[in-house]
Amino acid sequence: MFCLKRKKSSILFAGGEALENKLKEVRPVGEKARVPSRPVFWPAWLGGAEWTLSWKKILAVILTYPLLRTFTLWLHSSLTRNHISGTYSVVFVNCPNEQIAKDVARAILDKKLATSVNILPKTSSLYFWKGEIEESTEILLLIKTKTSKVSRLSTYVRLAHPFEIPEVFSIAMDQGDARYLKWLEEGMKEK
Asked: Which of 5, 157, 161, 179 ranks highest by number of CB atoms within 10 Å?
C-alpha cells in the first residue's frame, strides 16, 4: 500500500479500491460548501497555505519596490552594457545672463546634481508674462543628469535662480553611447 500524506487528511491508494478518506470529505446534505480563501496553487514564496494578507506585508512590498527596480536596472545595464531608456535626462534651464548661468552651472556640478552642463549663448525668447508679450535674450543651460535627480535639481534651481518662475523642464534620454552614460553615472557619485 502506498500512502500520500497531506496536511489534514491522508489519501490511501490501494489496488483500485475506493478511497475511504475521500468519502469522508463529502459534505452532508444542507451544509454550505467551504470556499477556499485563496487558490490551491498559492505560491510557496508567498507563505504557502499559511499566508495571510496584512498591512505589514503590503508595506514591505511597497517600500522594497524602488530598491528592487534600481537593482534590476543596474543588473540589466551591467549584463547588456546598455542603459534603460529614461534612466538619464537632459534638463533645460534659461538664465538671464552668462554670469548667472555659469554660477548656477558650477553650483549644480559642485552639489553632484549633474555631470555635465552646456551653456548655449544668447537665445532670443518671446513669452507671455502677466498678460503681455515679452522679448528677452537668455542663456540656455543643457544639464545632463540622472532622471532620479531631476526633482532635487529642479528644487535647487528654483532656490538659486533670479527669475520668479524659472524655466526648468527635462526630457528623458532614449539612447546614448554606453561609455558616455557610464561617465555620467560616475560623475555624480559622492566621494
From this structure: 157
Tell me the three cell numbers of residue 77: 545595464
Lowest-pLDDT range of 11-20, 105-114, 134-143: 11-20
Q: Rounded mean pLDDT of the chain? A: 76
Please name the helix (run of DSSP H) or strand (run of DSSP E) that holds residue 59, with its range, or none.
Answer: helix 55-80
Please name which of 111, 121, 124 lies closest in space to residue 159, comparing C-alpha atoms: 111
Set of cell numbers at residue 40: 490551491
The DSSP 8-state label assigned to residue 41 in this structure reads T
Cα 186 to Cα 112: distance, rounded to the nearest angstrom: 10
d(CA 42, CA 50): 10
What CA–CA distance (Å, rounded) separates 35 from 30?
15
- The C-alpha atoms of residue 134 and residue 163 are separated, in whole angstroms, by 14
pLDDT band (50, 70, 90) for residue 67? confident
